[in-house]
Write a structure and sequence with these properties.
Residues 21-113 form the Bacterial SCP orthologue domain. This protein is α+β, with helices and mostly antiparallel strands. The protein has helices at residues 4-11, 21-38, 75-83, 88-93, 105-110; strands at residues 44-48, 52-56, 70-73, 97-100.
Length: 116
């Protein structure tokens, strides 16, 4: 479970103070790693800079250079996706996620990883 201060910020980022960097980093890492545990593999790389990058979803592994399937977003957007307060299709339409590769849509099928 995520700390209350993170959950409150995810629900109301304009009205609630941003959590301390260490708390935010831990929440981002925890949820990204939960996705990797839910869908083990190395076909898609999920990046939430500056805190974490994980590989997930079964399929061919990538070992050098830029992976063919990359899903990248900022910490707030990631936490909103991970908790189900934002849908991947909406985030993509609003330009909040940089996604490339034929398998990145599968990330959306695996979210949320934490229910509120």
């Amino acid at each position: 479970m995520l700390p209350c201060e993170v959950l409150e910020w995810v629900r109301d980022p304009e009205g609630v103070e941003k959590p301390p960097r260490a708390v935010l980093a831990d929440a981002v890492r925890q949820t990204a790693r939960a996705l990797a545990e839910k869908a083990p593999g190395k076909a898609v790389e999920v990046r939430v800079p500056p805190f974490v990058a994980v590989q997930c979803i079964a399929g061919p592994a990538h070992t050098r250079g830029t992976p063919p399937n990359v899903f990248e977003t900022d910490p707030l957007t990631w936490l909103r996706l991970a908790t189900g307060t934002l849908l991947v299709d909406d985030a993509l339409a609003r330009g909040l996620v940089d996604a490339s590769g034929p398998r990145v849509a599968e990330v959306g099928e695996l979210l949320p990883v934490i229910s509120l």
